Amino acid sequence: MTTKCDKCGYGYHEVKSPELANRIRAFGPLFRGVLVGVDPRIVHRRPAPDEYSAIENVLHVADVMRQQHNRIWLMLVHDEPEVVPVPGDDSLVNAAYQNFDLETALDGLTEASTALADAIEDLRDEEWSYTAVLHFPYRSVRNIDWVVRDAIHEGVHHLIDTRRSLTP
């Protein structure tokens, strides 16, 4: 298992377990703080053809939060379910992302992050070890603890990318 991201520096075990839900819940306000008042042309501009725009980062992280929330639910009700990858750099998805209003996107991220954080707070101790089979980037068995930490990684990573996307 990857323990530290080479690109953003996030370490999967640097966040203490009692802080996980609050870290997830913070992504809505963090992204909002970076993006409120930014010119919409800049928010929708890709810094390079293979890099997300700020709006794409916000919507991708919201998608991840929803997907991880869904994964946790599946892990709680099924014995080691097989789950699908989170939508990634799909040109059709990203084209649709470009039509979103920033405020709507930020509200969606806040709602998705809050729902995931609420679900995390409701977990019983033994449920953190429930597992699922994931298929990205390769087939692996992961537990709920990893799924939550991966959601935080996505938020941290794409928040850095969002800040970077705002500079010319």
From TrEMBL:
<dbReference type="InterPro" id="IPR034660">
    <property type="entry name" value="DinB/YfiT-like"/>
</dbReference>
<feature type="domain" description="DinB-like">
    <location>
        <begin position="31"/>
        <end position="159"/>
    </location>
</feature>
<dbReference type="Pfam" id="PF12867">
    <property type="entry name" value="DinB_2"/>
</dbReference>
<dbReference type="InterPro" id="IPR024775">
    <property type="entry name" value="DinB-like"/>
</dbReference>
<protein>
    <recommendedName>
        <fullName>DinB-like domain-containing protein</fullName>
    </recommendedName>
</protein>
